Amino acid sequence: MPSPLPIRVLIADDHPLMLDGIARSLLAQGGIEVAALARDGKEAIALFARQRPDVCLLDLQMPDHDGFEALRGIRALQPDARLIVLTTYGGDARIQAALDAGAAAYLLKDALGEELANAVRRVHAGAHVFGPQARADMHGHYAADRLSPRELDVLQLVAGGHTNRTIGDMLGISEPTVKSHMSTILVKLGANDRTHAVTMAAKRGYISL
Fold first, then answer.
1. At what angle do helices 92-101 and 67-77 cross, to 10 degrees?
2. Which of 129, 157, 167, 200 has the highest count of CB atoms within 10 angstroms of its CB?
């Protein structure tokens, strides 16, 4: 019988050395062909439209359309696109956002070689794949402890060094309401104070510092 066609992969990462390393790592495993290399999210969407690869590997931190925008842009072109996030950053909120944007797999960049190739094959076959760290980040976090959009607004402004009164003015809410949101945020994150809440939220991927 003839051998099956190779899986055609698009890789997007803004670091040239990482981009080259991922490509070489996959090619060394066999049965995988690198269809295109993109250095930002916008280029990834454009190359997907032209090449229509079987699987896409996308970093999250990229210029000119980040990974989340690339995920949504590619899914808009092809709703059943097979998409893998390959990133440096974990955090349950960040992972959930990637899944909501259309990712079928979430791996950290230490997953190279056979592990990454196997993830590509499994996603190509229709499976969902999570690396060990992603599974650990997701474990124990439930929908009930997710921050609401308003709580995220408040916490992002807290991270920017604003006082409760200033935050209230900026969001058009009262200072007591800001304090109430902060109390809920502390409980949801299990944080001791505002600084601890900001640190934990950044680690989990709720906010950017």
1. 20
2. 167
Is residue 112 domain-shared with residue 150, that is, in the same domain? no
Identify the CATH number of the domain in which residue 20 sits: 3.40.50.2300
Q: CB under 8 Å to 63, separation ≥6 — which residues?
A: 14, 40, 41
User: How far is residue 98's CA from residue 111's CA, in Å, rounded to a whole number?
Assistant: 18
Specify burial of residue 122 (Cβ count, 10 A radius: 0-12, 13-18, 19+).
middle
Domain span holding position 62: 7-138
Structure tokens at 32: 């995988």
Q: Where are the alpha helices (DSSP H) in the chain?
A: 16-27, 41-51, 67-77, 92-101, 114-124, 132-138, 149-159, 164-171, 175-189, 194-204
Tell me, yes or no, if the pTM score tops 0.90: no
3-state secondary structure (DSSP) of residue 10: strand
What pLDDT band is residue 144 in, cutting at 50, 70 and 90? low
Give the C-alpha separation, 62 to 161, whole Å: 26
**pLDDT tens sequence across 81-120:** 999 999 988 888 888 889 889 999 999 988 778 999 999 9
Q: Do 56 and 94 belong to one domain?
A: yes
